[in-house]
Amino acid sequence: MQLRAENIERFEELLHNAPAKANASAAKAIKRAADSARTQAGKSARLTYEIKHGDVIKTIRMTRPRPSNLTAEIKSTGPVVKLLSFRVNPKTPKRMKKKAIRVSVRKGSNKTFDHGFVAKMGSGHANVFTRSTKNRLPIKSRYGPSVPQMLGNEKVIGQIEDRATEVLDNRLEHEFNRLLRG
User: Fold this and answer.
1) 91 falls in which pLDDT band (50, 70, 90)?
2) Domain span including residue 35
3) Is the same domain home to 93 and 126?
4) Which of 2, 132, 154, 179, CA to CA, is 20 to 30 A from 47?
């Protein structure tokens, strides 16, 4: 994601007069914009998907800007998310007779697993499982999309970019005024 702020030209003028102070101020503004983008990523993912804000945030790593390197990088990495992390009914393991499991990964959409069940294995791994055959074993653990896939959604990315650009413009203006006041 590349951002270009409207106030950057005025900031570049200031670079010629006091480059050290201008670079430090720009780094502060970029860091604030990156922090806001990270927060917005969690909020935007929650608007589209049935996932917790914390589950999104913990996958995001950020490289911070420095006065010598005025770039910030926000990167989300992680495996596919188990279905139990989304909205599942029932959520806890129960003995049931031929009752389907309903899972909602995206808001407003449900998927039904007719022969699915929620179980907690001896290792502590709890998830939604389905049987591959009519036999008792083998069973298959079910997963949804990974957080990077969710954040790659065009609607989600658009909201993140808009928020980051807005914050960068505001913070550059603020830092610019602060430098001029001395």
Assistant:
1) confident
2) 8-78+147-181
3) yes
4) 2
